[in-house]
Automatic annotation (TrEMBL):
Gene3D superfamilies: alix/aip1 like domains. Residues 319-346 form a coiled coil. Keywords: Coiled coil. This is BRO1 domain-containing protein. It comes from the Eukaryota. It comes from Dioscorea zingiberensis. Belongs to the BROX family. Residues 111-381 form the BRO1 domain. SMART domains: BRO1.
Amino acid sequence: MLIGFRDAAKMRTKKIVFEEVYTACDAGSLEKLKELSSRRQAVEESINKNSNITEAIAREMAGGVTCPYQQNLQKLEHYLPLLINLVFYTESVVTGAQKLQKRVKDFKIRWSSPLSASCVLKIGGPKFYSFNNLRFELGMNLFLYGATMRERAFETLSTDLMGTAALFRKAAGVYKYLAEVILPPLQAHLPKDRPPEVTSSFSNFMSLICLADAQAVAAKRAEEKSSSPSLLSKLHLGVNLILSEANSILRSTEEEGNDVSAKLKEFIPTCIALHELRSQRYLADHLQGESKVGTAVAVLRHAVGKAKKVRDPKSDSWRAVLSQEISDVEKKLKKLEHENEIVYHEKIPSADSLPVLEGKSIVEALPYEPQTLENRQQYFI
């Protein structure tokens, strides 16, 4: 069983009516502004959970899709190309007659952050961050797109491991694109009080988290195929190689002033402890197969001792998964100790003499290619 941080998609936003922000100089541009507002409204009603549309109508509008996360992905895929076009237009040097003019000088784009400690702790509703920058709107929507894709991956985990891994890798690609292409021009304009979602370093962190999820799924697939204990040990430790890099980035984002939720910071060490324990369990299986029972006992003793030093997570589900893993390893340790005492009589080596664990990472992000408008001339460009 995997554990996952599932709060990233719990974003909220306030309404934007683009035709109230911009004055269109022709009927065609006004029509496109209204389309932008309509597409945006569909997204905001879904994440704010204030839509009056019934499930049957929502399913029909989505072409028969019943999964809410898939429906939300569709809505974002309809909105993002229009938004990207508007961002490109407003940031470009326009010559000749302009089709849009700013009507509201300092209009507010407002989003909440489920990953910010100040938002999580706020009483009476989420805290909203306000910016007068369309790149902020684009960044938050792309972040939501990656988070929604990640949630969809968790839904398919029990039925389609290959599809699940692909979704995690696609989400990693979205966050990488966000960090490398969309957010860098915004960084210089960010105040100290900003959500972590709009910083490049945090998007890089999320990209690695999605890759760690994909690596964990790869390990699960290998388990189902009854792969060798040696390979399984390396795959699980591969998860930790990725998570360790992510943890370093997370610490750097805090140094940059990002206010990150305690739950997110708790997730990383819990996940690392879980996969290290699984890696060492499979390493012990490998050593037992080579008749190195004494060394296998030492590996499991060290693994259990280290796992028990990890601070218990507040999440009941995370704590249950880690506790069950520790219990399973303790049972295996007790059995090996008994066998060694009765049959093998091997010396138990010290912790300093244990085999060095090897990790193997086999996943990469799938590049995100933003959808483009078939005919840009129909829009503002």
